[in-house]
Amino acid sequence: MSFRFYTNAISQASRNIAAGIFIAGLLLIGFGFLIYVLKEIFAILAAIVFSVAGAGCLITAVKIFLAQRKIDKLTSDDSEAYRKNVQIRTEEDFDA
After folding, report:
1. What domain range includes position 27?
2. Please, which residues have CB within 8 angstroms of residue 35's CB and are 6 or more apart in sequence?
3. Is residue 25 situated within a structural domain?
4. Partner of 14 at 20 to 30 A CA spacing, among 30, 39, 50, 70?
């Protein structure tokens, strides 16, 4: 009678994990080989991705600057708007 520290389910799970790692390794080797062979195509694709990302950053920054400018104009043009119907009295008529 043999004593096992693991069940058949654990053995099957470890085989599945090993198969997944093996397939991932083959895919990585294949992608590496493709990149080595087709350098120019991947360089162009990378350049396109970085250019699109850079354009997106520029557009977002311009939108933020324009929104901030609009907010600054609203606060500077109408600086007395929040003081309507407010009177500040400086007389000291304290009869205590």
Report:
1. 7-37
2. 42
3. yes
4. 30
| Contacts for 85 with CB less than 8 Å, ≥ 6 apart | none
32 vs 60: CA distance, rounded Å = 34
Residues 44 and 74 in one domain: yes
Instruction: Going residue by residue through the chain, which has 96 residues, state the pLDDT in tens, using 9 for 90 and above.
Output: 555 665 677 778 888 899 999 999 999 998 888 888 988 988 898 899 999 999 999 999 999 999 898 888 877 765 555 666 667 777 766 665
Q: How far apart are CA 38 and CA 50, in angstroms?
A: 19
- The model carries a pTM of 0.49
In-domain check, residue 95: no
Helix (H) or strand (E) holding 56: helix 39-77
